[in-house]
Amino acid sequence: MSVAEIRCWAPDGVPEIHAGDDLAAILVTATGRLEAGDVVVVSSKVVSKAEGRQVVADDREQAITDETVRVVAVREQPGGGVTRIVENRLGIVGAAAGVDSSNVEPGTVLLLPVDPDESAARLRTALIAVTGAPVGVVVSDTLGRPWRRGQTDVAIGAAGIRVVDDLRGLPDANGRTMGVTVVAVADEIAALADLVKGKAENRPVAVVRGLGEHVLDVDGPGARSIVRLGNEDMFRQGSAEAYAEGYRNGYAEGSQETSGSSDDEVDGGAW
Amino acid sequence: MSVAEIRCWAPDGVPEIHAGDDLAAILVTATGRLEAGDVVVVSSKVVSKAEGRQVVADDREQAITDETVRVVAVREQPGGGVTRIVENRLGIVGAAAGVDSSNVEPGTVLLLPVDPDESAARLRTALIAVTGAPVGVVVSDTLGRPWRRGQTDVAIGAAGIRVVDDLRGLPDANGRTMGVTVVAVADEIAALADLVKGKAENRPVAVVRGLGEHVLDVDGPGARSIVRLGNEDMFRQGSAEAYAEGYRNGYAEGSQETSGSSDDEVDGGAW
């Protein structure tokens, strides 16, 4: 009976990372001997720290605003404070634009890496140079979901890995073609790694062994290719925001007594 | 150097499941000796088959309509066909309401289990009775995400497992309290299991070892508790749908020349 198996472990002993540290060298020491087909998952937090993305910011809210390219939805919370769902520079939609104020020095915040795919590619090159093994690299971050409680880790950077596995058109076990299945491999790897890395401990890196079928000989498309925006995005605005925009436009049209005929696109929203 | 480690494997040799099969007995045979703290992840597909949820349906679209309690967003696809994002009976928001037409007999579709938390609880009880080990059970299904390409597996049923790990208020490694982190443990476990189970092969079950800290002595809250709906849901309607509703209401108000004063809630949408 053959068995598909994955192992994932997160070594202790990764030191506190500072700006300018050689993260690849630190990862090589922490992870030990890597094998061909291993995937190394690194929390974006330590990538950002190594890249000097810790910045002075008395006001976390202003830092979030600075990292935001588009506001998707805003909601005042019952207990005070405001939740802002925004698109950040990387096209990622989530709360707080990736601005991180936990596990950083007081009076500072940590921004996401400038280009996490590029960070992953640099780490991949450095790891391969040391270990001689073709490995994949995922840079992970923590993201909420609109209709489900809690957050999961996702891939915001990737190199040497098939980020999605497109099974559309392949036969299923009964020989019928499968529906719309596109497996979000890199995000599932990030989620797996989160389970072993944890949040509170100093275990920002994990190694996943057993997914060599998804490891590539090249950097590949990267995690940027996972982002679904623009015309594909059915949730470009929060419901309240889209309703309010529609109401304003509808009210303006109705006030002009154009008797129901309008050149405006009624159901297009911001798309 | 201590190491946190997870192993996950998906045994081959699980037979085709039919209505009325004793799924727990089949799982015991397939998974071999379970240990205390193991989590068994089962694809909802085989749970549904064992529970006789395969129904004759010439029209898959009608079956989706029957399983839908609320339409969130509808979009015609460029290549033809329609994507419907809906809330199903279980409160889960996704495409196709969980109606599955792959890996089933022609002319039929497979509906989700009636109560996947209850299915998970029954399996947990039966597994514990056979193995004597406290184990957790997750019933998984495949779900898309609004802003990211590809699908991940999530937990639609759970028993004996901490479905979310609420770290709010706990100290981080620097002794500062962590922000809003609530780890979606059950969903991350489902994602992990998807990586080993695969989609095309007959490997509908996986065992996860190493997460005993999240395994409970009781059935626990179940996956239903992960659902975020109602007032917490900022994306209760697709942007186009919310815009159109706002436009209609705004236009009606404007046409009455009420000069901008209205008793209607302008920014409330459907909430």
Explain what you see:
The structure is a homodimer of 271-residue chains. The first copy, chain A, is an alpha+beta fold and 271 residues long. Chain A has 2 domains: 7-53 and 112-234, 60s Ribosomal Protein L30, Chain: A (2-Layer Sandwich), CATH 3.30.1330; 237-271. In chain A, 26% of the residues lie in helices and 24% in strands. Chain A is built from 6 helices and 12 strands. Chain A has helices spanning 23-31, 44-50, 60-67, 116-131, 185-197, 239-255; strands at 3-11, 39-43, 54-56, 68-76, 82-88, 93-95, 108-110, 136-144, 151-159, 165-166, 182-183, 205-209. A 5-stranded mixed β-sheet of chain A has the order 1-12-2-8-9. In chain A, a hairpin with a 5-residue loop joins strand 4 and strand 5 (82-88). In chain A, helix 1 (23-31) packs across helix 4 (116-131). Chain A is globular and about 75 Å long. The termini of chain A are far apart. Mean pLDDT of chain A is 88; it is low at 260-271. Chains A and B meet through strand 1, strand 9, strand 11, helix 5 and helix 6 of A and strand 1, strand 9, strand 11, helix 5 and helix 6 of B. Chains A, B: Residues 14-210 form the Coenzyme F420:L-glutamate ligase-like domain. Chains A, B: Residues 262-271 have a biased composition (Acidic residues). Chains A, B: This is Coenzyme F420:L-glutamate ligase-like domain-containing protein. Chains A, B: InterPro entries: F420-0_g-glutamyl_ligase (IPR008225), F420-0_gamma-glut_ligase-dom (IPR002847). Chains A, B: Keywords: GTP-binding, Ligase, Magnesium, Manganese, Metal-binding, Nucleotide-binding, Potassium.
